[in-house]
Structure formats: C-alpha cells, structure tokens
Amino acid sequence: MGKAENEASPLLPKRSNKIRNGWLFLAAFSAVLGNFIFGYAMVFPSAVIPQLQKENDPNLHMDVHQISWFGSVFAIGAIVGGLSAMVLNDKIGRKHSIMISVIPSTAGFLMIVAGHKVWLLLLGRLLTGIAGGITASSIPVYVSEISHPGVRGALGSCPQIMAVFGSLALYLLGLVLHWRWLAVAGIVPVLIMLFLLCFMPNSPRYLISNNKRDEASRALKWFRGSESNYISELNQIERSVNSQVAIQMSDLKSPFMYKPILISVLMRFMQQMTGITPILVFLQPIFEKTAVSLEPKLEAVVVGVVRLLSVAIAAALMDKAGRKALLYTSAFIMYLATLSMGIFNHKTPCDTRNFTAMVPSLENAYGAMAGPAINSNMLIPLISVMFIIFGYAMGWGPITWLLMSEILPTAARGVASGLCVVVSWATAFVLTLVFMHAVEAYGLFAPFLFFCVICVLNIIFTAKCVPETKGRSLEEIENYFRTGRTFTIAES
C-alpha cells in the first residue's frame, strides 16, 4: 500500500501559484514617484507666478507673454522627453529610462531655485518638462510589464493617481512655502525615486528581449514570489518575445503591428481633444466668463479632490467593470457635462472681453482671492466643469495610459509609447493655444460644443476599435491582434 502510494506520488512537488504582491507593489510605487514629480512640476506655475509678481527683483517680474511661455514650455519639454524615450526605452530599458529622467528634473528644479532671470526660470521649466516626457513614456510600460493580469488594472491607474497627488502637493505647499522652496521640495521625491529604483529589477520582458533569461527569471521570481508559478509565466513571455523581430517599416503593413499602434496614438489624441488641458489651464478665466468666482486656493483643492476621487473609483473598478465600460461611462459623463456647459453659455450672455482684459491683474489670473458668493445661476457651469473633470479622470484619463502599455507590441513598445506621448503633448499644446482665441471669437459655447462632439466620437471609437483587455495577459492581447480571433494562447 505504502509502495503503491509512493509510486503514484510525483517525483517533484507540484508548484503552487501563490503570487505575493508585496515586492511588486514596492517596485510600482518606486516607478510612479516619477508621475508624482510630473504632476507637481506640471502645475508649478499656478503657485509660483503670484509670488513672482510680488518679488522685489524686477528681473523676475513677468508680462503676459512670459507667463504664457512659463506655463506652456513644459509641454515643449515633454515632447522632447517623449522623443528621447522612444530611443531610451529600447536601448537602456524602461527602469533606467525612468532613472535618467532624474538628471533633467533635478537640473531644472535647481535652475529655478538659483534663477535670477526669467529665461533661467523658463529653462528650468523646459528641463522638468523633458523629465516629464521621459517618465510619461517609460513608467506605464514598466508598470504594465512587471504586473500580472490580476493587478494590472489597479496598478495601471497608479500613474494618474500619483500625478494628481503631485498636483495636490504643489497646491498645498504653495500655501506655506516661498516659490524657491517649492522648487527645492520638488527635488525630494526625485531623489527618493532614484534611491528606490536602484534596488528594483528590470522588466522581465525587456530582459528576455535582450537575451538575459537568467536575470529575467530572477526578476520575475522577485516580483511574484518563490511560491508562484513564475517559470510558466517566464516561458510564456519568452515565447511571445521570441516570436517578435525588430520592427521594420515594412512591418507596419501588418495589422498585428499597425492596429495597436494606431489605436494607442488615436486614443492619446482623442484624450486631449476632449479639452481637458485647456479647461484645467484656463479654469479661473472660464469661471470668470460664466460669472462663477471662487477663491482660487479653494478651487484648486476642489479640482484636485474631484480628480483624485474619480481616478480612485476607476482604479477600483478597472479590473471588475472592464476598460471599455469605464471608457463609455467616462465619455458619456463628459458628453453631458460639455453639452450642459455649451447650452448654458449659448443661452446666457457671456463676457466678450479678450483674455488679458478679462483678467484685471496677473494676481487675479493666478491666485488672488476673489468673488461674490455662488448663486443658483453660477451652479450650472461649476457643476458642469466638475463633472467634466470627474468623467475624464474616471476613464479617458487613466485608461488611455493603461491600454497603451497593454496593447502595444513588444517590438514597437518603446518607440510607440514615445510617439503616443509626443502626439498627446503636441495636441495639448496646440489646443491650449487655440482655446482662448476661440473663446474671444465665438464665446465659450463654440469650444464646449466641439468638446461635446469629440466625446460622442470617443464613444463610437471605443465601440469599434478598442479591445477589452480586462484579465488578459500581455501575451494573450498580442495574440488577439496577431490572429484577430481569440485571446487564448495554445500551450506548447
């Protein structure tokens, strides 16, 4: 009896698939600190410009033109950073690309700390923008590649959540810190990120792509735990990577290659075309145009809390409701909100003064306390804008980043993710420049009606072109684009 039992027993104990997420979460946190820095740096002018206008040094006083560049030059830097990441992601890996961003980020903040001329402050903003472009391209890919399907949705939302936290941190610190100390404070998370990433493994997919199987095995074991079935996952990654070859121009004719790239680029383009960037940048002028007047410090906190709440909801629902369901919900909420905003401004007389005349002083434009109490007529635009921000942050904000990192083919992931960031920031830059000209010419009705139409197109685009990636491995997603029929990968 005992002999029979021994003969029936396997020679090797069956490996469980008990995945431990502790180290994975630490690695993801280490990486998404870059998004915290990104959010902090992006909204930096909102707290700094009011203080600059009160400086005793006249060399630091900015006119409207310089203020415009101080805000927008970050986007130009992000484009440069995105282009750089197209090369860096595949040459030195996702993790090291994130670490490289420490150089322009630290240099930019230090330049702002020491700057005694406006052009030095502009250069500092440009450098922090370059760092932001690099991290925006690299972090979603790194987090996606180290995650397993069970947590990829939640972790994929972390970049957006951390960016919102970064913005909130800037708003809060701006209440108590001098603007130079705000720049010093920006260096702190940069150094923490660099320190933590020194101890984090590279992406297993990147290591496999560079013929470092043993290192990839150790990395995956570290991310999943020794009790997990990481060897099976490693073999699956290896099969997927080995089926790829270096991308050539002729490869773009293949649906397996061009479809996910085109979907990713169009999603980032249409994400910005919803108008979220000019709405956030010109939030106070929009409220002034519609007779809504809030204390800007309170307004910034309200916006930040709404963004944070909606992104947190999206993170909780992403792996339950699915990506497409949230995209539909997000676009529909934004559609209703932009439509109500457009109708309100069409029916309500609007201040037709131009942008510079509409803001009586630079202090009012960037941070003065002001305003009569909100009456019932003011609630419609206020609630509409809050729901635009809520809808965006619940779906089209975080999910476009996540889907980009999930559906891009391995051979083109580094280059294509950089291209997506470039398209996104270029669109944001142009749309932000055009927005106020459209408002001056046609009033708020026209741009919000345009954003409303874009939201409808986003719903159609999601239905026709976007695949549901909920609960799928990256290899299954690639197989879907390869065959066009199924997510299932045959075991060999």
Automatic annotation (TrEMBL):
The keyword Repressor does not apply. This is Solute carrier family 2, facilitated glucose transporter member 8. The keyword Metal-binding does not apply. GO terms for molecular function: dehydroascorbic acid transmembrane transporter activity. It holds the Pfam family Sugar_tr. Residues 27-470 form the Major facilitator superfamily (MFS) profile domain. GO terms for cellular component: plasma membrane. Its main location: membrane. It is found in: Cell membrane. Insulin-regulated facilitative hexose transporter that mediates the transport of glucose and fructose. Facilitates hepatic influx of dietary trehalose, which in turn inhibits glucose and fructose influx triggering a starvation signal and hepatic autophagy through activation of AMPK and ULK1. Also able to mediate the transport of dehydroascorbate. It comes from Tachysurus vachellii (Darkbarbel catfish). Belongs to the major facilitator superfamily. Sugar transporter (TC 2.A.1.1) family. Glucose transporter subfamily. It catalyses: L-dehydroascorbate(out) = L-dehydroascorbate(in); D-glucose(out) = D-glucose(in); D-fructose(out) = D-fructose(in); alpha,alpha-trehalose(in) = alpha,alpha-trehalose(out).
